[in-house]
Amino acid sequence: MRIKDIQNEVKSKIIILNKILEFEDGNIDEVKDLNKLLILTSFMSSQKKASLFEKFFRSKTNFIKISQKENKGDFKDNDNNFYELKVSLKNEALSINMRQIRLYQDIEYYIILYLDNCKENSFSFKLTKEQMTEEVKLLGGICHGCKKAVENNEVKEFSISLKLNSKNFKRWEDNYFDTNLHNLLWN
After folding, report:
1. Residue 7 and residue 62: Cα distance in Å, rounded?
2. Mean pLDDT over the full length of the chain
């Protein structure tokens, strides 16, 4: 890596820090602007980000958080449909990373968000459980351990990495992109 590359990386971080310093004081849990939330969380750990994005998603959709003990995903809507939320942030590999896909859970839908710094470069997908099951068969792998080690486990977690602009990504965009959800989250 060249020193110039490191300097450019530092400059980009300074720009983000300056944006953060310009924001008015308030509670981050109450941020209603997705772009602002992305900026504010840019230096946080994945665990802290996940909780904040869940709260943001809930505030926009009015979904109800459910207990993990129910084993029915993250949220339910007013019609008692259960949802699992997966959020993948912009990354160097330019891929949507979905981890801990729990097909054994009794849910109706998976919401997959890929968040970049603007609406146009971000994606919001909604899949039924049946569609996600097919995608795991087509693109997925075991999330923890190797196939042989978990083959007898009743409870398995899967993962999918979907490269942006690949044939499979285009297929997802055509079949699962949810314009209404996308607009709701970004407006």
Report:
1. 43
2. 90
Q: What's the CA gap between 108 and 70, in Å, rounded?
A: 14
Res. 22: pLDDT tops 90? no
Query: Any idea what DSSP says for residue 68?
Result: G
Residue bearing tokens 């009743």: 154
Q: Cβ contacts of residue 16 below 8 Å, gap of 6+? A: 39, 42, 43
Burial of 186 (0-12, 13-18, 19+ CB in 10 A): middle
Contact 115, 38 (CB under 8 A): yes
Its pTM stands at: 0.85
Residue-wise pLDDT for 83-115, tens only, equals: 999 999 998 889 999 999 999 999 999 999 999
In the block, tokens 């693109």 appear at: 139
- Please report, as a single letter, which amino acid is at residue 71: N
pLDDT-derived band at 13, boundaries 50, 70, 90: confident
Core vs surface per residue 116-128: b (16+ CB within 10 A) or e: beebeebbbbbbe
- Whether residue 182 contacts residue 121, with contact meaning beta carbons closer than 8 Å, is answered with no
Give CA–CA dist 55/147, Å, rounded. Answer: 34
User: Would you list the domain boundaries of the chain?
Assistant: 46-186
Cα atoms in the 13 Å half-sphere on the side-chain side of 67: 2
